[in-house]
Prior knowledge:
It contains three helices and no strands. By secondary structure, it is mainly alpha-helical. The radius of gyration is 18 Å and the shape is elongated.
Amino acid sequence: xxxxxxxxxxxxxxxxxxxxxxxxxxxxxxxxxxxxxxxxxxxxxxxxxxxxxxxxxxxxxxxxxxxxxxxxxxxxx
Length: 77
């Protein structure tokens, strides 16, 4: 799956949920939409976790003085 910005992924996920809630889709179309929705949800979750880790790095640096630093995801694992 191509990298999609968080906001676009969330917007698309909300649209898929609306489509699934209508119940107008066939079983095959519903499954395809569900699979796409799961991929988008996982992508959004991953981006939120990355953002959370960046915030934690900023807060840990100093309580009064915030300093940005490049977040290296591999160092945190």
